[in-house]
């Protein structure tokens, strides 16, 4: 395990060394979870950015050009039929 050292800026910012970013697959948008114990030991956990469950799917046209209407059961409504019939 290689030891890496970085400097804390006056605004409290730290740069993650490039080798660690590559090795741990840390990407923009990922988060770091910091924890310190009573002895002052610091641990950092990489929290990968998660995307929505359906982000990998492409939208699918359902046909008809969007002009049809359907009831709750999915049946196409007949515009010639009224509720009193």
Largest sheet: 2 strands, antiparallel
Q: Name the quaternary structure.
A: single chain
Total of DSSP H or I helical runs spanning 4+ residues: 1
Helix content: under 10%
- Strand proportion: 5-15%
* Strand line-up in the sheet with most strands: 1-2
InterPro entries: SpoVT-AbrB_dom (IPR007159), SpoVT-AbrB_sf (IPR037914)
GO molecular function: DNA binding
Domain SpoVT-AbrB: 6-52
Biased composition (Basic and acidic residues): 68-78
Structure description:
With 85 residues, this protein is mainly β. The protein has a domain at 18-47. Helices cover 7% and strands 14% of the residues. The chain is built from one helix and two strands; from the N terminus they run H-E-E. The chain has a two-stranded antiparallel ribbon. The model has no long low-confidence stretch (mean pLDDT 79).
Supply the key terms.
85 residues; mainly beta; two-stranded antiparallel ribbon; 1 helix; elongated; DNA binding
Question: Topology of this structure?
Answer:
Elements: H1 18-23, E1 31-36, E2 42-47
Antiparallel strand pairs: 1-2
Quick overview of this protein structure:
This protein has 85 residues and is mainly beta.
């Amino acid at each position: 395990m290689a030891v890496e050292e970085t400097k804390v800026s006056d605004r409290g910012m730290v740069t993650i060394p490039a080798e660690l970013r590559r090795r741990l697959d840390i990407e923009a948008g990922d988060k770091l979870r910091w924890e310190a114990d009573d002895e002052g030991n610091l641990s950092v956990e990489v929290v990968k950015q998660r995307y929505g469950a359906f982000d990998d799917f492409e939208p699918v046209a359902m046909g008809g050009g969007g002009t049809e209407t359907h009831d709750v059961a999915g049946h196409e409504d007949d515009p010639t039929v009224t509720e009193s019939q």
